[in-house]
Amino acid sequence: PHLDTRVIDGEKALLFGPFATFSTKFLKHGSWLDMFASLTTHNILPMTHAGLDNLSLSTYLMGQLMLSQEDRIDSLKDYFPGANAEDWSLLTAGQRVQVIKKDPEHGGILQFGTEIVSSADGSIAALLGASPGASTAAPIMLQLLEKTFQDELKSPQWQAKLKQIIPSYGQKLNDDLELTNQTRAWSSALLQLTFVPVAPETVELQAPLPVTEVAL
Fold it and tell me: What is the CA radius of gyration of the chain?
């Protein structure tokens, strides 16, 4: 959990959380029968395997569900000792359906990332998993293009447009200091941020250590 300041409906608010909850709805305003209606002979076993293989997570979630308002306020006071319980109310911030993926070895595994699922012909696609924030939204959209517009993406016109939008598209920044600084300068100018170039010695410090020197 963490404290977060937000502006909601024009008013400043201080948020704390999140705390895990459970619902059989797939959407905040969906049906309580959503989960049960989704059960088929093809997914019951993967769901069962995923639950059995993640008992510690299930135990944690059960503990979260059993928290009282007093327990949540006690947790808040670890961060904000002067918090007054009367100033805080419990809200449902969002809804997320956990993805369970079939696995030949384990039967079913929980997916904690964000994944694009599309039909074979690319005519329909869906975003599953954690809601993407600013750090993952752009890569996810590129994955969507790669899955649903494979032929168009190979054309010179699409390649030129993508490189206009993302100058470093198709290139790795890890080992290219000049390109890294060019990209940082470009994005800093767009976002009106102070450009801080990456120095060569910084790159050397960030280089991975040999396996024998990594402490476990």
Answer: 23
Start-to-end C-alpha separation, the chain: 27
The residues, ordered by sequence, that sit 6+ positions from 70 with a Cβ below 8 Å of its Cβ are 85
Q: What are phi and psi of 31, to 5 degrees?
A: -100, 145
DSSP state letter for 16? E
pLDDT in tens, 186-213: 999 999 999 999 888 755 555 554 444 4
Q: Are strands 2-8 and 11-17 parallel, antiparallel or unpaired?
A: antiparallel
Q: Does the model's pTM come out above 0.70?
A: no
- CB atoms < 10 A from the CB of 41, how many? 6
DSSP code at position 85: G
CA distance 164 to 162: 5
